[in-house]
Design goal:
binds 3-isopropylmalic acid, 12 strands, two-stranded antiparallel ribbon, alpha/beta, Isopropylmalate Dehydrogenase, 366 residues, 10-stranded mixed β-sheet, binds magnesium ion, 2 domains, 20% strand, single chain
């Protein structure tokens, strides 16, 4: 049985609660002889600030860099509202993304038939939905310089963020989107705001050139980011793969989450470039939802997005397609059985959901 190094960063709020269920799922995989993990744990976000005065320590950064994959829970909460900007909880996540060069963020939005009723949209609009948002994750306005609040000296200040993209950044995220589309329904929708932004003009031109040069077999469409937001809630099933920048991807993936019934359902994978020699890539897996301080510690958080993120790790980091399919099927079985946490209209506990996923895995394994 193969063994991989996993680094777990449960973080704050509901992070540790949902991570605990994934650890049980990992144990099941080891006992079932599927795959084994050497697990280390670290601190990120508010808990890291409390322990070290930083959103992530240097030693935990080194462990993240050395791991075969990182599993990340969630960060933040009202307790840390007043901490300096540089060490706010989110800074830990942003540093992981940037330092590990995790430029490709894959956010699938799948509407399980059993959950179509939990969506804020009508059943026929979302039932069977299966789209993938490919969000650029290490560039754009999140990291562009200058990024500051400047004192203008006349009682006025100026807040500045910089939206910036280079050709290579657009090409490499475009390739991820086109490659994924080839394995899915062969269609990419690229989204920008070229009607007001120069970075959007470059995004559009670069995607078109890449398409023509390397992926003429894939269908490429463009939608302005505002229109895409509207289309996502009007007719979401028109999409297969959506590729967009860091900020638009952040917003659009939150919108997409409600199509699936709950933010508690959406997993994500953040990937680096594949190493030319070994084919392996740096990777971090995290649920799209946040730390949900309002329900933290109550044992009622939905662990499915975190468990789904582990399934993405099986798929994208360890190439265990069967194991990932089995785990996804177990999640679907649990939902079909009617078991629900509060976010999707039920009263099951986090632990009960974990039990049920493991039960479904066990049953399928015979
Ligand atoms: C996300 C989150 C993060 C982001 C925050 C926590 C910094 O909203 O992963 O979507 O804006 O990227
Ligand atoms: Mg977000």
């Amino acid at each position: 049985m193969k063994s991989y190094k996993l680094f777990l960063l449960p973080g704050d709020g509901i992070g540790p609660e949902v991570m605990a269920q994934v650890e049980r799922v990992m144990d099941w995989h080891a006992k079932a002889g599927v795959v084994r993990f050497e697990i280390e744990k670290g601190l990120v976000g508010g808990c890291a600030f409390d322990a070290h005065g930083a959103a992530i320590s240097e030693s935990d950064m080194a462990l993240a860099q050395a791991a075969d994959a990182v599993l990340f829970g969630a960060v933040g909460g009202p307790k840390w509202d007043g901490v300096p900007y540089e060490v706010r909880p989110e800074a830990g996540l942003l540093r992981l993304r940037k330092d590990m060069a995790l430029f490709a963020n894959l956010r699938p939005a799948i509407c399980y038939p059993a959950l179509a009723e939990a969506s804020s949209l009508k059943r026929d609009l979302v039932e069977g939905l299966d789209l993938m948002i490919v969000r650029e994750l290490t560039g754009g306005v999140y990291f562009g310089e200058p990024k500051e609040i400047r004192d203008l000296g006349n009682g006025q200040k100026r807040g500045i963020d910089t939206q910036v993209y280079d050709t290579f950044e657009i090409e490499r995220i475009g390739r991820v989107a086109f490659e994924l589309a080839r394995k899915r329904s062969n269609k990419v929708t690229s989204s920008d705001k070229r009607n007001v932004m120069k970075s959007g003009v470059l995004w559009f031109e670069t995607m078109n050139a890449l398409h023509k040069r390397e992926y003429p077999d894939v269908v490429l469409e463009h939608q302005l980011a505002d229109a895409l937001g509207m289309q996502l809630v009007r007719a979401p099933k028109q999409f297969d793969v959506i590729v967009t920048d860091n900020l638009f991807g952040d917003m659009l993936s939150d919108v997409a989450s409600m199509l699936t019934g709950s933010l508690g359902m959406l997993p994500s994978a953040s990937l680096g470039l594949a190493d030319a020699k070994t084919g392996t890539r740096k990777a971090l897996y995290e649920p799209v939802h946040g730390s949900a301080p309002d329900i933290a510690g109550k044992g009622v958080a939905n662990p499915l997005a975190m468990i789904g993120s582990f399934s993405m790790a099986l798929r994208y980091s360890f190439d265990l397609q069967d194991a990932a399919n089995h785990l996804d099927a177990a999640i679907a079985d649990v939902l079909a059985s009617g078991l629900r946490t509060a976010d999707i209209g039920g009263s099951a506990s986090t632990q009960q959901m974990g039990d049920a996923v493991i039960g479904a895995l066990q049953k399928a394994a015979g």
